[in-house]
Every structure is written in structure tokens, then in C-alpha cells.
Amino acid sequence: MNLKEIHSVFFLGIGGIGMSALARWFKHKGYAVSGYDRTASPLTDELQNEGIPVMFEDDSCKLPSSLFDNKEALLVVWTPAVPRDSKLYQFFEREEIQIKKRSEVLGLLSSENYTVAVAGTHGKTTTSSMIAHLLKSANKPVTAFLGGITQNYQSNLLINSSKDKTIMVVEADEFDRSFLRLNPEMEIITSVDPDHLDIYGDESSIVEGFRQFVGLLKKKGKLFIQDKALQRLGEPVADKKGISTYGLRASTGIHADNVKAKPGSFVFDYLDGKMQIKGLELFIPGFHNVENALAAIAVALHFELTEEQIKTGLASFRGVKRRFEIHLNEPRKVYVDDYAHHPEEIRACLSSIRAMYPGLKLTVIFQPHLFTRTRDFAAGFSESLSLADQVLLLDIYPARELPIPGVNSEMLLESIQADTKMTVAKEKLFEVLRCLQPEVLVTMGAGDIDRLVPKVKIWISEMSNSTEQGV
Question: Nearest to residue 274, comparing CAs of 252, 305, 289?
Fold first, then answer.
């Protein structure tokens, strides 16, 4: 496929976080861009405000006729989140219009640029966003395709505005083995834990997928890999050249020292055996984010950022929406929202919150994501949620799946070791919260729980004000 021969691009599933970033890139490059998604969302609203038409009916009759002025110059970019039996997909296929997966298009772009690919079952969005911000804040020529909306730029896309050859930072998604389409000069692997077993089948297959990802690295390429992830991938990866390991408390390789949790930030030192950067402060809290920062700093040093540029860039990084996002931080009234939807992510988030707010009652509202994930990791979910004092479970968000008999939120309750635990319907949530009077409140999940966040933020702020006024 030659992008120079393409004039129009239509996105099937344009409202996805990865698809929308690619759509914005094509729009920026002067292509005629439009798309379809099943439902409107804040993200599709933003795309429309940026001049990208979005339709919400799966009906080929609703497609603009101008789209077919030159069928040979039309590209359809598709995500598997839109099923193949979609009427629009079937129409484009019948019309013999070229359809490419998002991963295929990203793979093409990565082959044309120096590509830094950030992979991992968790941590990749924050790490890739942090790398992109450090490079951009140091005026490096960076373009970034990210899996979340950065707080600094209010976008999931960063564009290189200089004429220098770009450094392309890409969030490399293991779902559907998409990351195997990329052509990276540098890779970062933040974690390799069992996930997406509906796609991979078992843990050994996802490990093999990550080994194949490492195999894509060019001959003189560089790999930064979290130490536990390297242990999981084993000798086939450990024996390769150009590998650097990192970890929060690793005795060798890149690691952190003097880590201190503060309300709202973490302070630490960076060490890699050759140099030390003292007194770094990161204003997106969490031990896991300190570890993510180690990888980002290592990449920044590779691109010759100075110690001062790294300190300044890290301190100015404001994180990614729904990644340990602190909405309220007052004495005995704290509200944090996080995208965590895997037991390891929940454990990392709640452990950090415990360190930041010792002695305060911790209340978690969790929405499980996918029936298969809930079934496959039920014991892990119950164990990690037991770090909270009070646990409220919403119904499972199905996403692309049909219900599985016997798989529901209730199956997690028995093994959760918390003072209070219950399932709650969304319409009853605030009634329950009024009874519980949370001190540190956390909402978690990758489904539509984000639509509750504004309401929760208002509710807890009003509750905080009422408490101060003695109401």
C-alpha cells in the first residue's frame, strides 16, 4: 500500500482511542477523513469539532457519495472492535475497497520512521506518554500514537512540527497480536502477565507473542525490559544483545532509590550503573509509575537529554486521563479514578494509595471488564481488591462479548477480604456511598465507568463542602 496514492480515509470504529489518534494523524496530513462508530462519545464529539465527520448508523446508504469519487484512492481502516458482519464492513468488502487493520497502517508508518514501540500487558499507555512528553519538552522531533488522552496535550496524538526526521513513539498493543505488525528500532516492555486469554488461549501463547515482538527488533536495536517481564520471557530473549533491564527495586540494571510517597507525588533517584539522577519528582503518583518513569528516563538518556531536561520534563508531566487521575486531594477526602482492569493493575494502584494515605478508609468501586477476563482471573481480582476496606462491584462491562452463564460480579464477592463488600447497581451507587462515607474513594475499570466520574467528582466535592460547613 502506498499512502501517496490515497486521498480519502474512512475509519470503521473511529471512536476507539487508537483509531482516533490515527484518524487525527491523517487529518493533519491533509487527507479527507471520516468514520463510523456505534455510539457517540466525548471522543467522537472532539473529532467532529476538529472537522472529522462521524456517522453512527451501520448503513451504507448513509455514506456520503463524495467518498466514492475515486474508489482506488479510498482506504478503509478497520478495528476488530467492529465485527466483520457489520453492514458497512460487508459493503466495503463487496465494493472491493481496500480495508486495512489499524495495526497494518501503523506498521507501514513505523517502517518509514525511527520507531520506539512500548508494549506490556499494563503500563504501556503511561510509559509511552511519558516518553513522548520528555522528548517533546526537550524539543526533540517526536510524533506519538498513544492509547490515552494526555493531560499535558489533551490528545492521544503528538505531531512532529519540525522538518527533522521524526522519532515515532507508538503504544504497541498486544491485543489481537497487533504489535507484531510494527518495525521498531527500540522497544520497551513494561510487563508480561496473562491477559487477553480469549485471544491467546493460555499464558504460554501470550509469552510467545511477546517473544515474537522482541524478534521484530532491528539488528542494532535497543530493548528496555522490566526485570520480571524478562524472567517470564526467559532465555530466548535474555540472550539477545542490546538489552537493558529495569525495575523498582532491581539490584542490577536500571532501578530507583530513595523512593518516597507524598500526597500527590513520588520522589526518587534514578540509577543505571553509569549515572545517577537525584531528587526526581513525579506528580502522577504510584510505585508502578515510578517504575514506568525509569523506562522513560532510560529512553530519554538514549536520545541524549540532559539531566536538567529530564528533571524538568518529568516534573511537568501531568499523566494520562484515567491513569491514577486524582480528582480531589483534601484532608480525609480523596478521589482517584483509574483504568485498572487486571488484578496486577489493581494491586499496583491500591498499594500506592495505601502508602500515600496511610490510616484512611479506602473505598473502591470496581467495574469488571469482559466476562472472560472476570472468569479467568476471578481469584486474582478478589485478592487484589482485598487491599481495600470497602468494595463495591458494578455489573460486568461486556464490551465485545456475549454473557457467559454463571460469570458475574457476584462470583468475586466470597473471596474478597474487606470489611464491607457488595454488588451495587449504578442507580443505587450514591445512596450506598452516602451510607459508607468514604475517605479515600477510587473508581476502577475499563468499561463505561468513566461516565460516572463527573458525577462522583461532584458528589464527593459537595460532601466535602458539607462536612467543612458542619452540615
Answer: 252
